[in-house]
Amino acid sequence: MKTNSIQKSRRRKEARPSELIAAALELFVERGFAATKLDDVAAKAGVSKGTLYLYFESKDALFKAVIEQGIFPILAEGATLLQQFEGNNAALLKEFMQRWWQLMGNTPVGGIPKIMISESGNFPEVANYYYDNVIVRGRDLLRQVLERGVTAGEFRDMDVETTIDVIMAPVLMLIVWRYSVAPCGTKDPEKYMKSYLDLILNGLMMKKETRL
Amino acid sequence: MKTNSIQKSRRRKEARPSELIAAALELFVERGFAATKLDDVAAKAGVSKGTLYLYFESKDALFKAVIEQGIFPILAEGATLLQQFEGNNAALLKEFMQRWWQLMGNTPVGGIPKIMISESGNFPEVANYYYDNVIVRGRDLLRQVLERGVTAGEFRDMDVETTIDVIMAPVLMLIVWRYSVAPCGTKDPEKYMKSYLDLILNGLMMKKETRL
Amino acid sequence: MKTNSIQKSRRRKEARPSELIAAALELFVERGFAATKLDDVAAKAGVSKGTLYLYFESKDALFKAVIEQGIFPILAEGATLLQQFEGNNAALLKEFMQRWWQLMGNTPVGGIPKIMISESGNFPEVANYYYDNVIVRGRDLLRQVLERGVTAGEFRDMDVETTIDVIMAPVLMLIVWRYSVAPCGTKDPEKYMKSYLDLILNGLMMKKETRL
Amino acid sequence: MKTNSIQKSRRRKEARPSELIAAALELFVERGFAATKLDDVAAKAGVSKGTLYLYFESKDALFKAVIEQGIFPILAEGATLLQQFEGNNAALLKEFMQRWWQLMGNTPVGGIPKIMISESGNFPEVANYYYDNVIVRGRDLLRQVLERGVTAGEFRDMDVETTIDVIMAPVLMLIVWRYSVAPCGTKDPEKYMKSYLDLILNGLMMKKETRL
DNA sequence: AATGAATGAGAATTCATTCAT
DNA sequence: CATGAATGAATTCTCATTCAT
Question: Most buried of the four, A25, B106, B118, C2, by CB within 10 Å?
């Protein structure tokens, strides 16, 4: 019984940081870092202001934690994707993007890119951390698909590095639109992803007829 | 001589609001609205903080002015583009995008989209204003090109509304990257635009051979 | 064995208040009352912050206890000194001061005067308590020595009440210096006490020649 | 007229720091640094809390300024004393101490030693600054008097360095008592100084008979 | 018009105190 | 008894806004 209650308490304590991070993520995304009050973060997490400081030593530290924690699922997903890297590269690209959307499109994690866009200027080290851990790795995955596609004659010749950016841009914007210019953002993500994939795959693919 | 200096002073006086807006734009882009101090805006514009209040009744009003002023060139450019709306639609689309980049890519105006992304949640009316005046109009132009291209058999069939968004996304991201996640932002815009246009035009175009 | 551990625990339990007081004394002396955190006091005493409140109902109460506890040895020493109050008064004065230094000079108790100097303004009742129990009694002892010395023709005539203060000042400062302006405090207490006793005894004593 | 009002304003602005420092000195002496609220300092200086930050960037900076400003009169007085350093050394010592009392005994500056005693542990750099600029210089002056007195055969032989401390202690304590253990502080400074000077001069002086 | 000193409401942070376990 | 997580009042510090000059 005592063990039980201790565990309960311990479980609660262990959950606190995550709860606070989740609350903070939501508010940072919605309002921006500077405009978010720690009072509100604490309230949203259902604790008092002081409790926040039991787990994070400053607002900046909380920000950092939000990003670091937010990155985990992305990295994990990336690792998973790596394993199936074989076969038809067009299909692979499609798979990659769809997974990306599943991960980011309907979960709180999706707010991370918006935060990084808005706040990277004020948090250079965090931006670097994000760049090294998320952007670089994501680009690595995409690079593989594109290069193999070109080599296999599936894709047209291209400037791979630049094309990576061009291809990522629409899915990033889709995410960003979720949280910005909200009224106009009433987009249908399914249709968007469909149009997007149709467009870029068509744009990348070697035209069969060309060979004729 | 006195006349001269008066004119100079008057000119300067009349320029004040613009100077302040320019300074504010730069800082809002760099740091975000909430993190920007009016002290710094005034200092950057070379006036005292009190002077700022002679021209803008609050920080919010300054924000609004920054957006409104920032929109003028965009609207003007849009009007110009409208006039040449005939001929080859692929070329027109290319022209449209290149003009867009010229307008946004190397001028302070380019910061506006980043600001709107970051702050629209905190300024719903401004966001609506921006939506009604910039986004809607921009989409109108693009819609015309795309629809005429489809009708003319130049472009493949498509969901036009969604495709507008997909097509705009990469150029928006290019702009946003200029001000965010700085390290990764070391992109070559020329190459980027080239790859981008190549990809989407190829993606949009009816395959000539298909007709065979 | 159980008995043993219970005794141990009991002994420890009974020692708790003293340990807490000792820890508090050290920190109050070092940092001052307001700047001392109860967290640190508890940590230094090896208990949790909550435990502190089992023994003291508030930070103020702890302060009071520190002073009261700190006064015991001083009072005890005073009582002892009273018993040998006879014989050569110069020697007695010397003895008095040397004992005082033994008591205060190398023990934690020595911090009490510094605390009283720093905090008496914020704790008037404690200051009164200290005054009534320590200062008044100490002065009583000194008064006896001085008055008897004057009566016996050993000491010159003097304003006894004032001289008490003048005589006490150097030993008090010696103690205070131990904890203040630390760098300059590299004084040799032995030499200091020697010079001090030499000076004041010489200053108090009737000049032999006067008799001539 | 404009010139006049500008000067008035300027004069006011220039006076602010001193007014704030004076208010802070008083409260720091009375309550200690940590227990003094900036609100109260500002109120006592007749300004708002925010104004304080126009002149001092933090509470610590204010503390430093209080000490630095408080030291000026002491240093100035020291410089003046240096000039009359000739003649009878006993008289010189008397003069030195009386001047010291005039300077510290009835002015706010007198609080400085108490502050240094209480807070030096928390402000090591300030303590060093104080040591280098006040204590060292004061000791230098006293050393001269004592050494010359010994050389001239006026004073008995002594350990000069230690005696400096012993001699300074009573006047320091007199000052400290002004602000501490208030009830016991009801001392008559005139009588105290008289007894003090009588005692130490008698204690220092060569006994006339010795010459016999 | 322009200035910049002054303000005070508001936000981050600290820490004595409480209380469920 | 003992713990340490949680609290929230109190304090430092910031900055948009005002206003006398």
Answer: B118
